[in-house]
């Protein structure tokens, strides 16, 4: 079931095009001193608040002109509009009053980014009364022109504009769409010119979709006029990883795009490349762009057309849209990111996800040292927005990246402490450092623990008497057999009466082996997906 929020467009006059924006509250800062210099710039957006349900016997007193227009999507009579508006008006130092005229503007449904319920937005419009004054410290007036300028001519560290302004007021005013969006899909164009379309894929819980990114030129002539760019095209799509059931929708999108199409792949996991075969079928003129290590792992059946290998630092020109290729190893050894230059938006692949963190793929060159270096690289770039391939766009990039660093540092510390306390095998280290974590997550977590131990060895932090050879010998059969016994002792076996002991043991052993040998995490049980917080 979807949740709803109200976003209020406050204007000073009927004729004017300025609107009120509020400084958004950032997430709580981390206490560690090493992160205090990594602070996101101010984010301004429309004042908004989540809608709650009305209690029994209560009714809404606020009159909204045109509310019937929303009746096919939401029953406003069941929602606590009054309390929500009280919260919103308090943000700007105003009060809700029965004589204030409010009108329904539009309802925007959120695409299925996941995890958690969808959040749809009801946009309302209201006028400032002649005798009212707004709170100046955390709110200000902004014009459409100023908003577009802050969105499209971004400089690192400058004030930022949030997605509600774009969705509620500027959509259609910063460029008209020249391609077709299937009616069965929902998208979000934020920042402008970067369209994010979550499509069902073979990814793992808690996500169900992979974000397809579409960037199309407004001015197609700019591509041919600017020959300084190393790669050019009229449109670009990124990580087409949708399930085969949605290939028809993907092909509809591709068929409507210009023929000079670039297909950028961040890495080779199947929930990022499952749609390649559909693209080359509908547009054999398309060109694939990927790192050399990624190209080696993409099957010929998925892509046999032209391709360009990139290593980072290349420039891509999509008409008037400039993009920079970023080498971002860690998740895999061929992992790439892409910076949309004019909006300073960083598309990060699976380096970041909307919730939790992605496992590093030890079988495909995943590396903890690279992961840390890529994270610091992203932080130094000071992006205004992070766009992951799973989950919502993140509006607080530096805070998110600092959180990733802290989490990995904490895991590194707990791993080292387990070793210093006498743990010598993979199972013993995990049993100590992950004692408070569900046993079912120990298998996917083992990949990151192995990489943490490798990184500790690289930093020369391991005790002198710790044997890497003994540890490495314990990373397969020893770990799987001991984990299986631990798993059985939790009582899970008793809860699965339909499985014989042999079948059950075979299933979980195969799941463990998949962690080490099979590409794309394909045979991991659904609850042991590649996205957790190990």
TrEMBL record:
Q: Supply the Pfam families for this chain.
A: Lactamase_B (PF00753)
Outline the extent of the Metallo-beta-lactamase domain: 225-390
Sorted keywords for this record are:
Membrane, Transmembrane, Transmembrane helix
Family annotation (InterPro entries): Metallo-B-lactamas (IPR001279), RibonucZ/Hydroxyglut_hydro (IPR036866), Sec-metab_biosynth-thioest (IPR050662), WH-like_DNA-bd_sf (IPR036388)
Q: Which GO terms describe its cellular component?
A: plastid
- What SMART domains does its record include? Lactamase_B
| Listed transmembrane segments | 504-524
The answer, when asked if Membrane is one of the entry's keywords, is yes
Q: Which domain of life is it from?
A: Eukaryota
Tell whether Membrane is among the UniProt keywords: yes
Which residues are in coiled coils? none
- Record's PANTHER family? ENDORIBONUCLEASE LACTB2
This protein is called Metallo-beta-lactamase domain-containing protein
Lineage of origin = Eukaryota, Viridiplantae, Streptophyta, Embryophyta, Tracheophyta
């Amino acid at each position: 079931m979807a949740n709803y929020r109200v976003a209020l467009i406050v204007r000073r006059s009927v004729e004017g095009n300025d609107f009120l924006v509020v400084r958004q509250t950032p997430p709580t800062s981390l206490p560690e001193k090493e992160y205090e210099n990594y602070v996101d710039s101010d984010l301004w957006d429309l004042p908004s608040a989540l809608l709650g349900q009305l209690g029994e016997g209560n009714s809404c007193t606020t009159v909204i002109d045109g509310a019937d227009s929303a009746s096919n999507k939401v029953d406003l009579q069941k929602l606590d509009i009054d309390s929500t508006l009280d919260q919103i008006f308090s943000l700007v130092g105003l009060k809700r009053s029965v004589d204030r005229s409010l009108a329904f503007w539009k309802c925007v449904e959120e695409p299925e980014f996941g995890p958690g319920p969808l959040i749809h937005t009801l946009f309302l419009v209201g006028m400032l009364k002649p005798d009212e004054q707004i709170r100046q410290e955390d709110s200000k007036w902004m014009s459409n022109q100023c908003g577009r300028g802050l969105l499209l001519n971004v400089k690192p560290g400058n004030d930022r504009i949030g997605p509600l302004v774009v969705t509620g007021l500027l959509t259609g005013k910063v460029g008209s769409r020249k391609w077709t969006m299937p009616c069965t899909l929902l998208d979000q164009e934020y920042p402008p010119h970067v369209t994010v379309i979550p499509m069902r894929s073979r990814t793992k819980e808690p996500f169900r979709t992979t974000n397809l990114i579409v960037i199309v030129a407004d001015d197609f002539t700019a591509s041919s006029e600017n020959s300084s760019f190393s790669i050019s095209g009229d449109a670009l799509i990124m990580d087409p990883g949708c399930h085969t059931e949605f290939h028809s929708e993907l092909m509809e999108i591709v068929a409507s795009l210009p023929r000079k199409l670039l297909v950028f792949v961040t890495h080779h996991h199947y929930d990022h490349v499952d749609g390649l075969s559909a693209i080359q079928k509908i547009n054999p003129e398309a060109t694939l762009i990927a790192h050399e290590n990624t190209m080696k792992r993409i099957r010929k059946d998925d892509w046999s057309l032209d391709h360009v290998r990139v290593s980072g630092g290349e420039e891509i020109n999509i008409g008037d849209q400039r993009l920079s290729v970023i080498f971002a190893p860690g998740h895999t050894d061929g992992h790439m990111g892409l910076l949309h230059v004019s909006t300073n938006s960083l598309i990060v692949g699976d380096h970041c996800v909307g919730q939790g963190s992605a496992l590093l793929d030890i079988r495909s060159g995943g590396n903890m040292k690279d992961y840390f270096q890529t994270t610091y690289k992203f932080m130094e770039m000071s992006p205004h927005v992070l766009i992951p391939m799973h989950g919502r766009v993140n509006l607080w990039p530096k805070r998110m990246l600092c959180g990733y660093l802290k989490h990995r540092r904490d895991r590194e510390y707990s791993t080292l402490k387990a070793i210093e306390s006498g743990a010598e095998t993979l199972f013993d280290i995990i049993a100590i450092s992950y004692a408070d974590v569900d046993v079912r997550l120990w298998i996917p977590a083992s990949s990151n623990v192995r990489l943490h131990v490798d990184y500790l060895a690289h930093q020369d932090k391991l005790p002198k008497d710790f044997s890497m050879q003994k540890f490495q010998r314990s990373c397969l059969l020893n770990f799987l057999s001991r984990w299986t016994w631990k798993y059985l002792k939790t009582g899970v076996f008793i809860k699965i009466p339909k499985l014989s002991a042999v079948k059950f043991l075979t299933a979980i052993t195969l799941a463990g082996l998949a962690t080490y040998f099979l590409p794309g995490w394909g045979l991991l049980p659904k609850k042991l997906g590649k996205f957790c917080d190990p």
